[in-house]
Amino acid sequence: MSYVVGYTYQADNYCDECMRKRALPMLATNGIATMYGDAGQTEDILDEWAMSTGLDRADETSFDSGDFPKVIRDESAHDLCGTTPEYPPGTCADRCGGCQAPLGHACANLECPECFGLGYRSAAPGLPYRQCWACEGAGIGVATT
To answer: What stretches of the chain adopt beta strand conformation (E)?
Structure first.
């Protein structure tokens, strides 16, 4: 079964929460008062936004991701990670443009060799090591290049 791990909108990718934060103001821009307030789920908010503009979300060929978010499904996420010169091992191609987290579940290209956890993030800007999100081990032997 396929599931949504993020969204492509205006030349960037977004996780569920960051897309929700971007979509809420669009309802107000279109004069829509959502029944969910600020607490609605991303998919519900996107459905309301689409209805307010007459857009058919089910037919993603009928609109551009510059105008309305398109979904990123788990089977297509992270397909470039570790396979191209732009995204060598230890880097992730599918990160959220808002919070910079890998989309969906862990990116296998960033898996921690110590705990096989969720993945790495930079320990701090400019430091040569990464830190595991799951075990929080600083600089556990993976140098960045």
So the answer is: 4-9, 12-14, 70-73, 120-122, 129-132, 138-143
Q: Rounded to an integer, what distance in angstroms lies between the CA atom of residue 43 and that of residue 61? A: 18
Using one digit for the tens of pLDDT, what is the confidence trace for 56-79? 999 999 999 999 999 998 878 877
129's CB contacts (< 8 A; 6+ apart) are: 123, 138, 139, 140, 142, 143, 144
At 8, is the secondary structure helix, strand, or coil?
strand
Would you call 22 helix, strand, or coil by DSSP? helix
Measured between alpha carbons, how far is 120 from 81 in angstroms, rounded to an integer? 13
3-state SS string for 64-77: CCCCCCEEEECCCC
- Whether pTM > 0.85 for this model: the answer is no
Pairing of strands 70-73, 4-9: antiparallel
What residues have CB less than 8 Å from 136, skipping those under 6 apart?
none
